[in-house]
Amino acid sequence: MTTLAYESADQAEAGYRHYRPRILLWSIIGYAMFYFVRKNLSIAMPVMADQLHIRKTDLGLFLTLHGVIYGVSKFVNGFIGDRVNAPIFMAIGLIGSAAVNFLFGFSSAVVWFGIFWMVNGWFQGIGFPPCARLLTHWFSPKELATKMSIWNTSHSIGAGCIVILCGFLVDHYHNWRLCFFVPAALAIVTSFCLLIFLKDTPKSVGLPEIPGTEEVIPEDAEDPNFAATLRQRVFSNPYIWVFSLANFFVYTVRYGVFDWGPTFLKEAKGMTLVNAGWMVALFEGSGVIGMLAAGWITDRYFNGRGAKVSAICMVFAGLSLLAFRAIPAGNMLLTTLAMMAAGFFIYGPQALIGIAVANLATKKAAATAVGLTGVFGYASTTLSGWGLGWLVEHYGWDRAFLGLLIVTGIGLILFLLAWSAPRDGYGHAIAS
Questions:
Q1: pLDDT at 214 over 60
Q2: Residues with Cβ < 8 Å from 124, sequence gap 6 or more?
């Protein structure tokens, strides 16, 4: 049993104030770096297609295989993430992904690209479960939507920074391989920082549990009912399944715009890859604001119930996509504004889904619940990757955007089905 180093309430509060900002900051930096060794392919794709004569369906297949493996990995590693040291687990995933990026950068054959990107998908799936464990152990349910929305900016920070970095590398050095070598080196450095600055749980540093999370099984006790915990809190909860299915459609829209945005802007709007990279970065940047706004609104006005805010966001995400496609080529300002609006509204639901299932599953099963949503989320690359690539190649961009609008509508319906979901599952503790 861990001995508490902070005996009084004032000492414990001081300990929380010391550790919680650091946990939040370094979990953001760490997960953003996972994007550096995942979304670098988006900017490299057009150059690889030109230089290596790779078809769009092949590029889409890379994205699909990577996404499916990533989703499975996120689910499997969710079980592990609920039970192991989060900083160590997160660092292992980041180092593995960096190593695979080096191998990808040295390759030239299509088959090896596919194999290495599938392996990268597995290591990428290790990234989120440790973060789910960290956030649900260090922050209470009443503030988790706000804090996890702040953490979710890591997605947009990482994705936005990497498209700018890779756009610069390709434009100035005319070498797509640098899009893999440079981010991999940065990821390795970051992984060692995670081991230094992140701490697993409050009890690992002698602090008591965060108030509001005490109803679950004491953390220092051996839990013989972990399988029962998962069954009751995750797999028997219909709302978690609805949120997971909604995640499929949210991620289809999100990655459809992000992965194919540079190619669409280059081919249909006549823009350079540098400008396209900045526009996709703005899509991500507005997503940061959208996530923060969605999290704050959820806690402030909807008592932590994210399904309602997500439904509203999906309506406006669909309208933004309509505007983005309808704006004539050459109008960079309006195209950028429409793309930013799409990012603002689609990233709100993307963040709120993870928050909702983590709260419903409680900190004892949060990583598993998030992993389950990941299976559905990254299975979406069958549509956002290969599916959209096939539609564009055979029917053009108009059909692809019509498909995205249909997907947005289905996501809206699912959020309406989850409208009455409770905020969290801490009122239904399982006896040890």
A1: no
A2: 34, 37, 38, 66, 70, 73, 93, 97
DSSP 60-72: HHHHHHHHHHHHH
* Contact predicate 292/28, CB 8 Å: no
Q: Where are the beta strands (DSSP E) in 64-167?
A: none
Residue carrying structure tokens 């309808």: 326
SS3 357: helix
Angle at 412 between CA 406 and CA 418, to 5 degrees: 145
Structure tokens at 167: 């756009």
Q: What is the mean pLDDT of residues 204-224?
A: 63
Q: Which backbone phi and psi does 108 adopt, to 5 degrees?
A: -140, -15
Looking at residue 234, what DSSP letter applies?
A: I
pLDDT of residue 426: 73
**Are the C-beta atoms of 313 and 349 separated by less than 8 Å?**
yes
Residue 256 is predicted with a pLDDT of: 84
Contact 428, 141 (CB under 8 A): no
Average pLDDT of the chain, as a whole number: 83
Please give the DSSP secondary-structure letter assigned to residue 207.
Answer: P
Residue tagged 């593995």 (tokens): 96
Q: Which two tokens stand for residue 103?
A: 């191998």
- Distance between CA atoms of 344 and 269, rounded to whole angstroms? 21
Using alpha carbons, select from 138, 205, 211, 201 the residue that is nearest to residue 3.
205
Residue pLDDT, tens place only, 342-380: 999 998 898 899 888 888 888 778 778 877 887 787 778
CA distance 91 to 186: 13
Query: What percent of the chain shows pLDDT beyond 90?
Result: 28
**What's the N-to-C CA distance of the chain in angstroms?**
17
Q: Which amino acid is at 353?
A: I
CA gap 376, 410 in Å, rounded: 14
* Average pLDDT estimate for 139-157: 82
**Which pTM does this prediction carry?**
0.72
CA atoms of 12 and 239, how far apart (whole Å): 35
Report whether pLDDT(93) > 80. yes
Amino acid at 287: G
The three-state secondary structure class of 127 is coil
| Closest residue by Cα to residue 62 from 92, 100, 25 | 100
Upper half-sphere CA count for residue 285 (Cβ side, 13 Å): 13
Measured CA to CA in angstroms, residue 251 lies from 2, 31, 47, 49, 121 at distances of 40, 17, 25, 24, 16
